[in-house]
Design goal:
By secondary structure, the protein is α/β, with parallel strands linked by helices. The protein has 15 helices and 5 strands. Helix 6 packs antiparallel against helix 7, helix 7 packs antiparallel against helix 8 and helix 14 packs antiparallel against helix 15. The longest helix has 17 residues. The radius of gyration is 27 Å and the shape is elongated. About 5% of the residues have low confidence.
């Protein structure tokens, strides 16, 4: 609802606030102390509302419920814009409801209008995580994830798993770390453990595209051929190097084993010789290999470069 600062509705009584102090009314005079200073320790949501605003009455209870569920990790200030127009103008509030979030004395996010409960919860989770990341001794999560990925790519899945685990300890819903642990189990051929993590993944993680890639990686890794099958594919190619199906089957077997680079090279060979074989089957499978390895894996980077060379030569 557009805020008409020039036409101020009749003054209304203040709404009831939360008895535990998590949710409270504030005003222009006390804003510096109750929001800016208080946010140095705890993130503060600031809900700009008015008693005549219908959407405000819809959003307010959703915000209050989410803040209450956070159990003190985030607090919420309510500001009636009718009574605090100077502050609303200073913060350039164009319409209500508008919500700001402050941490360490600065605004860190804001939105206008009614939002779904899931989005509100995600915002509060992010604010809570800011507090965790600000603690002494907290991990630099971005740096830790890079170190773990490098360790996994270098063939040290146990080191990678330890780092990913430390990230999860600090941020339990970190998708990259959760998926990273799945990948370390796959690298160590502990497929049951990987499957358990996939089966019991939190909903927020399971919906992420990175998670789908981990599932693909496990499915490919579990497709282990026996030695006779592997030899059979190689013999078929010795007899007929243009047997694309045998080369494709060999690629699948190699990828499930330890020679992923050779697996990708086999598919690239098919693409080079016959790009449209079996309705682009080799290229589609190669893209699935890339997905299973992850976009930052050196084999993926090299494989994409080789594929580009073939496709655009």
């Amino acid at each position: 609802m557009i805020l008409g600062l020039g036409n101020k509705p009749p003054k209304a009584e203040k709404e009831q606030t939360d008895v535990n102090g998590l949710i409270f009314d504030t005003d222009t005079e006390s804003f510096e102390q109750t929001v800016i200073t208080a946010s140095m320790e705890t993130p503060i949501l600031v809900d700009f509302w008015a008693p005549w605003c219908g959407p405000c009455k819809q959003l307010g209870p959703m915000l209050e419920s989410a803040v209450a569920e956070a159990g003190g990790k985030v607090r919420m200030a309510k500001i009636n814009v009718d009574e605090n127009q100077e502050l609303a103008q200073a913060l350039r509030i164009q319409s209500i409801p508008t919500v700001f979030a402050f941490f360490k004395g600065k605004p860190v996010t804001a939105f206008a209008g009614v939002r779904p409960a899931s989005e509100i919860k995600a915002i509060i989770d992010q604010l809570s995580q800011m507090v965790v990341n600000d603690q002494p001794g907290a991990l630099d999560i971005a740096e830790a994830l890079k170190e773990a990925a490098d360790a996994l790519a270098a063939g040290d899945p146990q080191k990678a798993q330890d780092i990913y685990g430390a990230v999860i300890d600090q941020d339990e819903n970190n998708v990259a770390a959760y998926v990273g642990i799945v990948r370390t189990f796959i690298a160590m051929e502990q497929y049951d453990d990987a499957a358990q993590m996939i089966e019991h993944a939190p909903e927020a993680i399971a919906k992420d595209p990175q998670f789908a890639a981990a599932r693909t990686a496990l499915e490919l890794a579990q497709n282990q051929p026996d030695k006779k099958e592997l030899e059979g594919f190689k013999k078929a190619l010795d007899k007929n190097p243009d047997d694309h199906q045998a080369r494709f089957d060999l690629a699948m077997a190699l990828f499930a084993g330890k020679d992923k680079e050779a697996a990708m090279d086999a598919l690239i060979h098919i693409i080079r010789v016959n790009r449209t074989w079996e309705e682009d089957k080799a290229r589609k499978q190669l893209l699935q290999f890339f997905e299973a390895l992850g976009p930052s894996d050196p084999l993926t980077v090299a494989g994409r470069r080789k594929l580009s060379t073939v496709l655009f030569s």
